[in-house]
DNA sequence: CCAATACTTGCATTATGGTGCAAGTATGCA
DNA sequence: TGCATACTTGCACCATAATGCAAGTATTGG
């Protein structure tokens, strides 16, 4: 409910980054929500990086984030109305390097690991696990 | 016809600037083409600044520019298809500070100075005229 | 052919933004 | 209560991008 004045160009600024566009494209195509570790396993980027980009997307008014236990679920906001138009544009973009489709494939596989519709595990990709393991 | 590989995030990067968004919004709303001096008189920004932003928009594939004598006319490109969706988003953005509507008002007035549908004069705004006058 | 003019651009400066490391917070389980 | 873990963030560093000045190019009218 942070309806603070958002500069209009901030909407595009939010998507003017490769990683952030991958996040939004993934969520637009799937319509699903996602926690951070699922995104790490889907985009194969470190959690601190995605966490920061998620914050930027939230501040730009594209995402809402909700804590559930140790997990934080992120989902697309649909209001104000121009966001739906924005997502249509994101979905219409070409995927010539097939980065988005690769993200999507990993995300769908990762969803299979949910139990009761919720993520119950942490990062699975060896390269991005916290060193404590 | 520069169908070179444009990074998808470059599309949003192009609109992630206040001045460039004002240019595109103006052209989306009017559907008209415009030369540089008309844009200077509409946005009240120096010509070198707008010229550079126009170049960025051209390189991002949003504009085509055509020289006519001493004037260069800029118009929106409509292909690839995602651009139409992008422009719909631009048009759907709020104008809470009424910057876009002020630009539009000045642009419409400036259009009245065309003769034969073409701009025949230079910058009218005193503050942005070249010092030679 | 010269001068006015519509527009562009090299350069230096400043501002903004992305990244990685390492340390931090918060939650839940044993 | 202590530890593992899901996520966040302060800091330093580097890359990118916006700006203004001044000099440049290209076109045209006298």
Question: Can you describe this structure?
Answer:
Chains A, B: GO terms for molecular function: DNA binding; DNA-binding transcription factor activity. Chains A, B: This is Transcriptional regulator, ArsR family. Chains A, B: InterPro entries: ArsR-like_HTH (IPR011991), HTH_ArsR_DNA-bd_dom (IPR001845), HTH_MetalResp_TranReg (IPR051081), WH-like_DNA-bd_sf (IPR036388), WH_DNA-bd_sf (IPR036390). Chains A, B: Keywords: DNA-binding, Transcription, Transcription regulation. The structure is a homodimer of 133-residue chains. By secondary structure, chain A is mostly helical. Chain A has one domain (8-111): Winged helix-like DNA-binding domain superfamily/Winged helix DNA-binding domain (Arc Repressor Mutant, subunit A), CATH 1.10.10.10. Helices cover 50% and strands 11% of the residues of chain A. Chain A is built from 6 helices and 3 strands; from the N terminus they run ααβααββαα. In chain A, strands 1-3-2 form a 3-stranded antiparallel sheet. In chain A, helix 2 (18-30) packs across helix 5 and helix 3 (36-43) packs across helix 6. The longest helix of chain A has 13 residues, at 18-30. Chain A binds a DNA duplex (30 and 30 nucleotides) through residues 13, 17, 19, 35-37, 46-49, 51-53, 55-56, 67, 69-72, 122-123, 130, 132-133.
């Amino acid at each position: 409910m942070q309806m603070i004045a958002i500069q209009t160009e901030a909407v595009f600024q939010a998507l003017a980054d490769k990683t952030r566009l991958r996040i939004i494209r993934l969520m637009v195509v799937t319509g699903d929500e996602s926690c951070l570790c699922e995104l790490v396993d889907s985009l194969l980027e470190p959690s601190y990086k995605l966490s920061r980009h998620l914050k930027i997307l939230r501040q730009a008014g594209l995402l809402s984030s909700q804590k559930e236990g140790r997990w934080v679920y992120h989902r697309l906001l649909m209001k104000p109305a121009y966001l739906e138009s924005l997502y249509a544009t994101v979905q219409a973009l070409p995927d010539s390097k097939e980065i988005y489709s690769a993200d999507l494939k990993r995300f769908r596989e990762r969803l299979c690991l949910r139990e009761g519709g919720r993520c119950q595990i942490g990062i699975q990709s060896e390269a991005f696990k916290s060193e404590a393991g």
